[in-house]
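Researcher: Please generate the 3D structure of the following complex. Treat every line as part of one assembly.
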Amino acid sequence: GENVEQHPSTLSVQEGDSAVIKCTYSDSASNYFPWYKQELGKGPQLIIDIRSNVGEKKDQRIAVTLNKTAKHFSLHITETQPEDSAVYFCAASPGSARQLTFGSGTQLTVLP
Amino acid sequence: KAGVTQTPRYLIKTRGQQVTLSCSPISGHRSVSWYQQTPGQGLQFLFEYFSETQRNKGNFPGRFSGRQFSNSRSEMNVSTLELGDSALYLCASIGEQYTGELFFGEGSRLTVL
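Model: Done. Output below.
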């Protein structure tokens, strides 16, 4: 089955700096890669996703890049703000978001 | 529009007991997925239901089961509880206009003593 590895497990940045979280996956059949943000006491919330026919996608301060050849994808957050502090999960699926394999999560802390 | 509602939010059980968790998806959503979240294993897929039928099942023992009712509400049951079953159980629903997004509830936190 699919295996998703996520790094780093913790990340601290100064407010205004950029943050990058990286994930690798094992199943070449995977073609859907979402990123979820989980705040304390809440369920995960989708922040951005990318499909295998796209190499990069941006949404304001958030961007995701995908390298299918190397089987890795990354989340980039620019101009970080304290409210970006949360746990971020990457995930992969061979076509359906109904059965996602998640990475282990990254605790992002944005220091004021 | 109300979000995904999970009940109970917190519960404590002892080893050997069983537990039933409930999930009400967003109105109009017919697909419900369940995930187990633990510090050690992260988020792991349990099962997915659509129109009262289980479509997918994760790699969990048979003690974990679920069902979905005609109103799309779903329940999951864990029998013969073990200490390792302590976790946050998350339910997510998916809309008809499938965009890929899972809408998660806030979860049911189970503690097994």
